[in-house]
Amino acid sequence: MVHVKRIELSHFKSFGGTTSIPFLDGFTVVSGPNGSGKSNILDALLFCLGLATSKGMRAERLPDLVNHNHSNNHKTKEASVSVTFDVSDLEDLEDFSRNSPRVTQVAVVDDHRNNGHSSENIPVNQEETPIKGKHLVSNSEWTVTRRLRVTKGGSYSSNYYINGESCNVSQLHEQLNRLRIYPEGYNVVLQGDVTRIISMNSKERRNIIDELAGVAEFDRKIDKTKETLKEVKESEERCEIIQTELKRSLERLATDRIKAEKYQKLKLQIAQKQQWELVLVWRSLQQQVSTLKSKIITGEQEATQLKEQLTNLTQQINQTSNQLEQLNLQVKALGEDEQLTVASKLATQKAQRNQLEQRQQELITLKQQQQQSLETRKKAIAQFEDNLNQLTQETIELENNTIPFLI
Fold first, then answer.
1. Fewer beta carbons under 10 A from the terminal one: N or C of the chain?
2. CATH fold of 268-406
3. Higher-confidence residue: 131 or 183?
4. Which ranges in the chain are annotated with CATH 3.40.50.300?
């Protein structure tokens, strides 16, 4: 059966120097007068195994556990407690020995300016030396050591060791749990616990028995497993809700995808039809431009012909006017009969001249109309050419915009 084999105290509370207390297999009684330090042995056990706080060991602060009366005058004062277990009856002894953790140390600094009630973790520059003693050579022994160092400035460091290798309190408790030693268990019965146990009801006593038998540990594991299962179920429900939302979102996205594809298809068709429409309009304008150019050429030819006719008529009018003047001169020189003949010819010449002048005026008016029509057609051609250029540019842009849809 695993049991405490000995406790070694060094400058701990009332123990000055180093004191080794053996514990025999079975029942060991420590007796002595009041104030001889019997309770300090139990406090040392709690201190070493990390089973109680400083107040549980009847001290306000951890530095109060150091025996200052027998310590030297060095800057650092130190107290340590080692508890050695006899684990020769442990079935998985080799596996238990191999699980000794290796971690870096953590120092706890106590601020003495706040009446010793606040503390913080700080790194300690002083290098720790592994505990190596004469009691750590046997594989049947398992030793836990706690070392407490206090400086003159009020800071202190507390370190745990398992078989000489440093560890933290969590790793220590993990190893102690394998020995069925729990911080909240009843491996150590303090003063007043017996009276409290006697006054307990049956359910509370059953809990103590479960703790001692190790059943409570399984209950805690069951409760922890139930909590984990509950969390998993809640997570599963959340995942199902998310999955449902994702399915709905997927359906919406599928519908939107169909609409988007239809929209892209219709947009491509519209672009193609707009392109064909622009081509047809461009061809129509080309035909209109060609027709107007032909009309302009014809109008220019007609204007040239009218100009020639007008020139001829002007020449005829001038000739007629000259003839009329000559006839007037002849009339004055001739007699009455001849004057009548000449007057008749003169009237005929005047009538012809009037006709020619009227024809001249008509040709001038027609020429002006042809010129106005020519200017109007030139403006229309310029407008058609502008429209044609604009349609050509739109066709190029539409072709450029249509290429990505075709791809």
1. C
2. Helix Hairpins (1.10.287)
3. 183
4. 3-181
If one looks up domain 3-181 in CATH, what number appears? Answer: 3.40.50.300
User: Quick one: what percent of the chain has pLDDT higher than 70?
Assistant: 77
CA angle 16, 5, 90 (to 5 degrees): 145
Separation CA 352–CA 305 (nearest Å): 22
Q: The tokens 């306000």 sit on which residue? A: 60
CA distance 304 to 298: 10
Q: What are phi and psi of 61, to 5 degrees?
A: -135, 155
Judged against a pLDDT cut of 50, whether residue 220 lies above it is answered with yes
Contacts of 367 (CB under 8 A, 6+ apart): 303, 306, 307, 310
Residue 221 CA to residue 223 CA, distance in Å, equals 5
What letter would DSSP give residue 36? S
Question: Mind listing the pLDDT tens digit for each residue in 382-393?
Answer: 887 787 778 778
Main-chain dihedrals φ then ψ at residue 340, nearest 5 degrees? -65, -40
Contact 110, 155 (CB under 8 A): yes
Backbone phi and psi for residue 200, each to the nearest 5 degrees, phi listed first = -75, 155
d(CA 354, CA 367): 19
User: Which DSSP helix (H) or strand (E) runs through 162?
Assistant: strand 156-162
What pTM, to 2 d.p., does this model score?
0.44
Contact by Cβ (8 Å): 110, 62: yes
User: Cα–Cα distance between 201 and 282 in angstroms, integer?
Assistant: 106
Counting every residue, how long is the chain?
407
Q: Which two tokens stand for residue 393?
A: 């540019």
Helix (H) or strand (E) holding 120: strand 119-122
Phi first, then psi: give them for residue 149, nearest 5 degrees: -115, 135
Q: Is 133 left (phi over 0), alpha (psi -120 to 50) or beta?
A: beta
